[in-house]
Design brief:
two-stranded antiparallel ribbon; binds carboxymethyl coenzyme *A; mainly alpha; three-stranded antiparallel sheet; globular
């Protein structure tokens, strides 16, 4: 059977045969026949906007791999910094490379004092930490003007290290400001997740010692959130990056995309939903409202996964380990019952709605003491590695500026009245 499609223009009777390559057909071929007819695909549902060798995802089979490595193996055997290196460089680091990478990241965690004292402290006292993060990441570009030199390999490397290293510092600073606690400087003697927990929770002690189980859980959650191919924020990164903006500005756009409840805000929405349901006994009533189209079941469904999200499976295991230290999140019983009932209900089965990564991550973060408004911020820290991997790939691909077409449906030309 030929691996191609044939398209016929019924207006002229002309046909063109287009080969199928890597599961898609090239729009440039289609254009040869139908140049003036646009594909209408507003949410990119049927459109591949790029080729990428970073993350493989099979939504029907529930498979997720970074650079070919299954997410289950990375979560079990790797660390977030190793995964960040893998995503950006394409290969796992050797031990010397990992040591150098870890040293570099660890020694770029500090932020300019003006960023903390003048910029972050200028926010309204109750500013949402994700709003602060979006702005702070964009503002970093003004501290590193050489970042505009995006085709200098040296400069690129430097900005990548800075962004990965400074995200936890900015994230914790936003939280400390929100709760009125003094800023905690990074502690270079701690590993990546422990340093973040130290900046979040340190009070009067000389050195903050995080519980190793909780630090490991944060590291695994960071691995699971590090990349997810062309999601909304990564697409934002690539679109803005295609204009050759500096990486901080592109990353700020990606953060902004992640702020929305349909994307990085979903775990926040899950916890709020579970709180609203309130008790185990109210689950059936809530599901009836979901089926009536009155509300959405937050943390369920995914544009790509049409079976169980593999990240959700790993997270469920992490949740048990975290709850053994923190005590069980009281919303867990409601979540488990929701999952059990939904997965045996025709409405959810027929629409292939399964728990996604956010169904349980919010419960873990809440049990660890993170306030709900920090959830999207916790997502942004590791996703920065994925965004940067896509940004580098995009620049290496010699891509054109992203500029889709539109179908104009407004009024015809008309005269200004009077
Ligand atoms: N609860 C109830 N019904 C749903 C849900 C849900 N969570 N998600 C989809 N549906 C229904 C939807 O009403 C539609 O039904 P019908 O065919 O009768 O009209 C059908 O399933 C298809 O839904 P869709 O809206 O066309 O699917 P989509 O691919 O556009 O949306 C989604 C994907 C993630 C935005 C959506 O499933 C959703 O809103 N889920 C809840 C929010 C959420 O958990 N988001 C986190 C995604 S994972 C983290 C990330 O990668 O960012």
């Amino acid at each position: 059977m030929a691996e191609s499609v044939t398209i016929t223009d019924n207006r002229t009777g002309e046909s063109i045969e287009i080969p199928i390559s890597n599961g898609g057909i090239a729009a440039s071929e289609y254009r040869k026949l139908l140049g003036d007819i646009w594909f209408y695909d507003p949410a990119f549902i049927q459109t591949a906007a790029c080729s990428s060798s970073i993350t493989f995802l099979d939504g029907d089979k529930g498979i997720l791999r970074y650079r070919g490595y299954p997410i289950e193996q990375l979560a079990e055997k790797s660390s977030f910094l190793e995964v960040a290196y893998l995503l950006i460089h394409g290969e796992l680091p050797g031990s010397d490379q990992l040591a150098e990478w870890t040293h570099e990241i660890t020694h770029h965690t500090f932020i300019h004092e003006n960023m903390r004292k003048r910029f972050l402290e200028g926010f309204h006292y109750d500013a949402h930490p994700m709003g602060m993060l979006v702005s702070a990441v964009g503002a970093l570009s003004t501290f590193y003007p050489e970042a505009k030199d995006i085709f200098s390999i040296e400069s690129r490397k430097k900005q990548i290290v800075r962004l990965i290293a400074k995200m936890p510092t900015l994230a914790a600073a936003a939280h400390r400001f929100y709760v009125g606690m003094p800023f905690v400087y990074p502690d270079n003697s701690q590993n990546f997740p422990s340093n973040f927990l130290s900046m979040m929770w340190k009070t009067a002690e000389h050195r903050y010692e995080p519980n190793p189980v909780l630090a490991k859980a944060v590291d695994i959650l960071f691995i699971l959130h590090a990349d997810h191919e062309q999601n909304c924020s990564t697409t934002a990164m690539r679109v803005v990056g295609s204009s050759h903006a500096d990486p901080y500005s592109a990353c700020a756009a990606a953060c902004a995309a992640l702020y929305g409840p349909r994307h990085g805000g979903a775990n926040e929405a899950v916890v709020r939903m579970l709180g609203e349901i309130g008790s185990y006994d109210n689950v059936d009533d809530y599901l009836a409202r979901v089926k009536a189209g009155e509300v959405r079941l937050q943390g369920f469904g995914h544009r790509v996964y049409k079976s169980y999200d593999p990240r959700a499976k790993i997270i469920k295991k992490v949740a048990d380990e975290v709850f053994s230290i923190t005590g069980k999140n009281e919303l867990l019983d409601i979540a488990l019952k929701l999952e059990e009932v939904a997965l045996s209900d025709e409405y959810f089965l027929s629409r292939k709605l399964y728990p996604n990564v956010d169904f349980y991550s919010g419960l873990i973060y809440q049990a660890m003491g993170f306030p709900i408004n920090m959830f999207p911020v916790l997502f942004a820290i590791p996703r920065t590695a994925g965004w940067l991997a896509h940004w580098v790939e995009l620049l290496d691909q010699d891509s054109k500026i992203a500029r889709p077409r539109q179908l104009y449906v407004g009024p015809d030309a008309r005269d200004y009245p009077g």
